[in-house]
Amino acid sequence: MATLKANPNSAWYPYFKVYEGYYDLLNMINVPRKIMDYLLDMPDGYYTPQDNNSYPRTLLWKYLYYDGAHPEQQPLPTPAQKMSVLFSPDNPTSPSTDKGYRLIPQVFIKPAQTDAQTRIYVYMGPTQATSDFEVQLSVVFDIWTHYTQEANTKSEAYSRIDAIEKCLIAAFHGINMVGVGSFYFNRAKHSACGSDVLDDGDSNVGRRLVLGLQVSSETPNGNLPYNNPPSIGKVQLA
């Protein structure tokens, strides 16, 4: 039997990667940014967000941005208004307006538990490996609002946090995010999926929504002339 040498330019040198199609998750580092870009719902030269309450991200932004009664009757926040409430790690304690930070791509920032504002925290949750070629990620949305604003909408959506949660489900459930995977709301596919009540024991009430994100490998297994028996010394690695 001819000996094989690992390619010194290989990322796995001095070993062979014989299962090239196995998922490695490296390209998933861009998922949080893609999720935030999608939530911001910005114009891009080809697409312009519509001020139409049947669009879930439009309605979400109204409940998130406007604190008083009938937020659904307010205009869709402008791109500048949306960016003004997006958390900035460069100025974590100095939001640009008195509305404060409302869309926060991390687990927690301290002022959120005291200010009378509605906020959404977005971060990656547990990962479950369902096969060598398919992984179930999860995305967590923690929705908080001050108790004085939870039921002040004076609309059919009595609960502000419940309305935001339903907008998030409508915005994500069933969509395929190109280059990433497909979102779902199915506990049978990911045990973390679902929603629950949050309470900080003080002034804020909330809900935690967890959605699944299925990602699959697009790399087929390589047909390498490499035998991988459970014995050491049969293949020369270098």
Summarize the SSE layout with pairings.
Blueprint (H helix, E strand, L loop, with lengths): L30 H10 L15 H10 L13 H6 L18 E2 L14 E6 L3 E4 L2 E13 H4 L9 H13 L3 E2 L3 E4 L9 E6 L4 E13 L22
Parallel strand pairs: 1-2
Antiparallel strand pairs: 2-4, 3-4, 4-8, 5-6, 6-8, 7-8
Description:
Helix content is 18%, strand content 21%. With 238 residues, it is an alpha+beta fold. It is elongated, with a radius of gyration of 23 Å.
Kindly report the average pLDDT value. 86
The SSE order reads: HHHEEEEHHEEEE
User: How many distinct beta strands?
Assistant: 8
> Which secondary-structure class do the elements indicate?
alpha+beta
Give me the Rg, rounded.
23 Å
Unreliable spans are 226-238
Q: What general outline do the C-alpha atoms trace?
A: elongated
| Helix proportion range | 10-25%
Notable traits:
single chain, 238 residues, eight-stranded mixed β-sheet, 5 helices, 8 strands
